[in-house]
User: Which sequence fits this backbone?
């Protein structure tokens, strides 16, 4: 197939298409501003092409009035993770440029040239991922708030960041072939039930944040639990972190009174737990840690460093009994006052 090179911003795209006899394959290049690229993405009709490629395309950083700057991708994240916006197809391709520089259009979907990565699927109530797909790209179905069914294929290896933000999916079963999830992959989705893959290496930042999970079983393959990754786990009172987990980030959990930590844990954020009910992130649940842990030990629900004996995380409530009293007070103040 003949490929035609389009330098973004050199001339209007429709004029370039007419001058080049409306090519079926387009190669995009240039050093362009974020505004120029966004304007092109807004008007770009990907269905006109069989193949879309990039050649040394660079979108410039955004410079603020105070002298600070950020990349185009960082700029997008402010809106994607805040407002669950839908992304234009050309922007999705750019977000996956590290995975592939050439993409093909097949049945209104966009894949990497080898068909192993699904980069874009039209918005619908159901998505069935085809058997040959190994990866779901960054932002593939971002903001699809009408999508209620997601059927993932066996053999799928990864799901990229922002892929299913705000999806209306209630139940999710990840195939055991899946190794990695991207940051904020299911942020603000309607998930209530999730089965994680036995091959999953980690639960990244924001992955299930602001969901409504009633429970979750963390597989032993998981090495890290990222910032705000399971803050959507709001309908359980306690959780056991399995052997294998080495790192837990800030605000990883919410609304529990008992947490059991493994012997493998090496690092945990002091504010790993966020208690929204009392608007205070400094009140963690009762903490227990495996006696064979080389870094920490627990005493009366608080966590200490073994090497120094210095307090690592102070459990203000000193155990589940006091937590239960607190919840009782929140639900019925009169009942607690009478008991005193």
Assistant:
């Amino acid at each position: 197939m003949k490929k035609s090179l389009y330098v973004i911003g050199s001339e209007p795209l429709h004029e370039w298409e007419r001058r080049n006899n409306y090519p079926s394959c387009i190669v995009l290049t240039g050093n362009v501003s974020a505004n120029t690229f966004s304007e092109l993405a807004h008007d770009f009709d990907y269905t006109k092409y069989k193949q879309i490629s990039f050649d040394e395309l660079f979108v410039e950083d955004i410079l603020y009035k105070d002298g600070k700057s950020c990349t185009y991708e960082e700029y997008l994240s402010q809106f994607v993770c805040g407002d669950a916006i839908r992304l234009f197809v050309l922007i999705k391709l750019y977000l996956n440029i590290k995975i592939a520089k050439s993409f093909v259009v097949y049945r209104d979907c966009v894949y990497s040239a080898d068909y192993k990565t699904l980069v874009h699927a039209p918005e619908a109530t159901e998505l069935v991922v085809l058997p040959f797909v190994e990866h779901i790209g960054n932002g593939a179905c971002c903001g699809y708030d009408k999508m209620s069914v997601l059927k993932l294929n066996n053999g799928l290896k990864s799901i990229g960041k922002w892929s299913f933000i705000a999806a209306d999916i209630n139940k999710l079963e990840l195939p055991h072939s899946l190794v990695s999830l991207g940051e904020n992959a299911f942020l603000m989705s309607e998930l209530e039930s999730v089965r994680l893959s036995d091959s999953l290496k980690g639960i990244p930042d924001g992955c299930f944040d602001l969901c409504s999970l009633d429970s979750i079983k963390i597989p032993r393959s998981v090495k890290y639990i990222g910032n705000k990754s399971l803050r959507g786990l709001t309908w359980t009172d306690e959780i056991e972190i399995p052997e294998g987990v080495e790192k837990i980030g800030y605000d990883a959990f919410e609304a529990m009174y008992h947490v059991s930590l493994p012997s493998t844990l090496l690092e945990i954020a002091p504010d790993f737990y966020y208690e929204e009910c009392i608007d205070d992130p400094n009140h963690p649940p009762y903490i227990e840690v495996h006696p064979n842990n080389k870094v920490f030990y627990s005493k009366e629900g608080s966590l200490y460093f073994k090497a120094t004996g210095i307090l690592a995380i102070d459990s203000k409530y000193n155990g589940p009994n006091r937590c239960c009293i607190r919840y009782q007070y929140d639900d019925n103040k009169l009942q607690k006052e009478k008991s005193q």
Summary: The radius of gyration is 24 Å. The helical segments are 13-19, 34-43, 72-83, 89-95, 320-331, 333-339.
